[in-house]
Amino acid sequence: MATLFTRIIQGEIPAEIVYQDDHVVAFRDINPQAPVHVLLVPRQEIPGVAQVPEDGDHRHLLNAARIVAEQLGLKDGYRLVINQGESAGQTVDHLHMHLLGGRDFTWPPG
Label partner for 55 (CA 20 to 30 A): which of 23, 41, 49, 100? Predict the structure, then answer.
């Protein structure tokens, strides 16, 4: 069965898409944790970081994050987060990266 993110990528579920190319789709998070909160998802269904193959769409996530951050005017900085597994907060078994910005962040992230 296709993941929630695959269904968004395929247009079955609406989302506010801010960027897409042949490898990555980026859309606004429906439960934002910062003024800017975008999810970057590889088109290829990969359950998480622990399962990434040597080659694949996941290799394009960082370039897409840079492009989206530039397009959204995040000149003062931003945070990229990838959760692996339920205990780390991963709720959808489809590799994805959170791009958060528009406010100051503290360290450690919690």
Answer: 100
